[in-house]
Amino acid sequence: MEKIVEKPVEKVVTQIVEKEKIVEKPVEKVVTQIIEKEKIVEKVVTVIQPAAKAPGKITFWSQASLPTMVDVWKKVMADFEKANADTTVDYQFVSYADAPVKVTAAIAAGSPPNLTYIYAHGVYIQQGVEGSVVPVDDVIKELGGDKAFFEPAIVLQLWQGKYYSVPFTMGPDLTFYRKDLFEQKGIKVPDLNTKYTLTWDEYYDAAMKLNDPPNRYGMVQCLLPPHGEKFQWGLLMSNGGTVFDK
């Protein structure tokens, strides 16, 4: 912006007077006055400086309780804070059993965490549809797209064409058997070097041979969350079943 002020003088004077005033604000004004001949030219230069970024905090709810997993998250957070000096991570532990309820309650109260992970994918889908959880398609794309992930893991995060979470770990579910009881009943265990699975018919036959209620049952399964129900889903769906009739 330029402001010109006409002011008569008695004699010709050529003089440059500079004033500089620095204010600790995002906007800095530098005023330079030039007195030359018979007029004063006043120029006001406004320099817009980017405002300092306010310190931020990310609240992260984690269900990691094993020391090895906690150490991994601590390293991830330390690396993030090092790369983002103006942001800190508030790491809070929430148990697997409590997480679905607490996440839902926190959203309802208007104070949810910025990040969390739980096994109950349905909670994210429900809240995502209601607008409380944002899709993370941009994150998936930045990480290499859906092809960069193990397919059975990435498909669980997809709902109506949008991803609502990012898979970061997977673990196997195992079935243990009593070798001594198998030998007693003459049940042959498949050679795991050539065959990695049992058919459902083989599984059923082995369970029935071992079944001796009330002293012993052919198959016992944990149904507690977050893992127990997964076996039921596999058993149901691989045999052509479904929860709903439509």
Order of helices and strands: EEEEEHEHEHHHEEHHH
Through-space gap between termini: 71 Å
The profile of the biggest β sheet is: 4 strands, antiparallel
Mean pLDDT: 74
Based on secondary structure, the structural category is alpha/beta
The count of β-strands is 9
Supply the number of helical segments.
8
Bulk shape: elongated
Give the percentage of residues in beta strands: 15-25%
User: Rg to the nearest angstrom?
Assistant: 34 Å
Structure description:
The chain has a 4-stranded antiparallel sheet, with no helix packed on it. It has a 3-stranded parallel sheet with strand order 6-5-7, with helices on one face. By secondary structure, it is of the alpha/beta class. It has helices at residues 67-83, 99-109, 121-129, 137-142, 151-154, 179-184, 200-210, 228-238; strands at 2-5, 13-20, 27-37, 39-48, 56-62, 87-93, 115-116, 158-159, 162-163. It contains 8 helices and 9 strands. Mean pLDDT is 74; it is low at 9-52. Helices cover 30% and strands 22% of the residues. The longest helix is centred in the N-terminal third of the chain and has 17 residues, at 67-83.
Question: Which helices and strands, and how do they pair?
Answer:
Elements: E1 2-5, E2 13-20, E3 27-37, E4 39-48, E5 56-62, H1 67-83, E6 87-93, H2 99-109, E7 115-116, H3 121-129, H4 137-142, H5 151-154, E8 158-159, E9 162-163, H6 179-184, H7 200-210, H8 228-238
Parallel strand pairs: 5-6, 5-7
Antiparallel strand pairs: 1-4, 2-3, 3-4, 8-9
